[in-house]
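Translate sequence into structure tokens.
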Amino acid sequence: MSQMYDTVEPSVVDEEMLQRAVEEQGPQNRAGHIAKEEGIEFREVHQLRLDYKNILKIDHLWQFTNLTKLQLDNNIIEKIEGLDSLRNLVWLDLSFNNIEVIEGLESLEKLRDLSLYNNRISVIENMDNLQQLQVLSLGNNFLAQLDNAVYLRKFKRLRTLNLAGNPIHKDERYKIFIAAYLPELVYLDYRLLDDNTREVASVQYQYAIEELRQNEALEQQGQEERHRQEEELQLHKAAYVEFLNGPSLFDSMYAEDTEAAKLAYLPGVAQLLESYSSQFVALCQQVFTLGLEQHERREDEVSAFFSCMGEAVSNNQERAALKVSTFEKERQEVFRELQKMTEPKLLVTRLAQCVEETVQLCDCLMTLELQLVDQLEDIVKDFERNISDMVSGFIETVQGIFAQCRDLENNHHEKLLEIAVATLEKVAKNELVEDLSDDIRMLLVDKDTVINAVSASHDTHLLKIDNREDELMTKINSWSTTLIEKVHSDEVERNRKRISEIHTYIDYLREQLDDLELQETL
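Result follows.
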């Protein structure tokens, strides 16, 4: 199997090893000398070989974000780790190591070719995210359970599989089993799966495969439903009304309210709670429905705004490009004309005209940019006003509904207090017919105890309502502020970049004129 510690000195992937490997595998000769002097950025490396280096621990690969091919074969690696940043990895070789568990591959969603040949793996697992996998080599490992290969059915693109050299390879059912459970496989142990094997497998495992397909279909339905629910929840969160389309807020008011749990057993409180709950949940539903409607309006407004901004920038760029195109055509003609001139005075005069024309072009491009800035400023102001109106209108309506929730709570509190006090008086006069638990009787010792219990419950409920309202207000105000700030900062950045582009282009034109003038002088 793989190398052992008593024959080699273990090493760890570190900066020095990586730098040396990149330099050795990068450009050679003069290009390599220049690259070494200037320094090679790790993020620009696409392929890296770290084979035969006695590596025990994978580390320091976080800078190789654009790496597509990585060789770590023929080392003494025990644990797959340190690969989280390699999201663009397509090809990975971890063969001839001491790996016992398949793990640490969650981020490698683009991986197509994986070799874990000649390791110590006994279970095929923890590869769910590798949906692009086409080639998998797990030969010469410790895989002993043939059923474990069924896990590979989830990789719909898998076409080449190597399991030779494992204990399961000795099972007489091996080839037929794999062909039956992995019908899309083309090559098994680097040999073509023939049609006869597929037909035999299909017949022999017909009923087992049919049952498995039914179970997979049910599981798929479950996954789709969970995915739908997650998307729905994300939409509700984006609208800041998550869990308000049901009794969640109401239930949270009572979840940790021990006093309310006791008071609920007082005569008549159950009916009171039922009425309170239905009215409260209806108000929450109003907030929820309103939130989704307003979210859609805000999304439409944002979409329209960016579309309008993009159109304005595009139109302005087309006008500027037309100016530059016309100028370039004329400039080429002027340059040809200048090269033919022999009269020094005439040449100087024409060069001066070219300089003036360049200045005029600069002024024209700058004017276009200023016009665009003014236009975008008006668009941004309208957008900012519209968003502000939408958010303030939504907040105002929501605050009104939450005020109704508090009114309901206050009303419920008053009625509950009346019931509790009335029950206390009946207990004092021995007129209560219903049996009460010991907890309730401990509340009904005197009026102050009853009032304190009801008030404590009331305060808890109001706090829950206030917190949920504050949470909604804080989130939508934060969204509005962040959005507007980003719009302004992006526009400032765009303007600076455009002005820099204009200056760079004009400087280039001036340098050409200076070079031409110098040539003529010489």
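Note: The chain has two domains: 5-219, 248-336+373-496.
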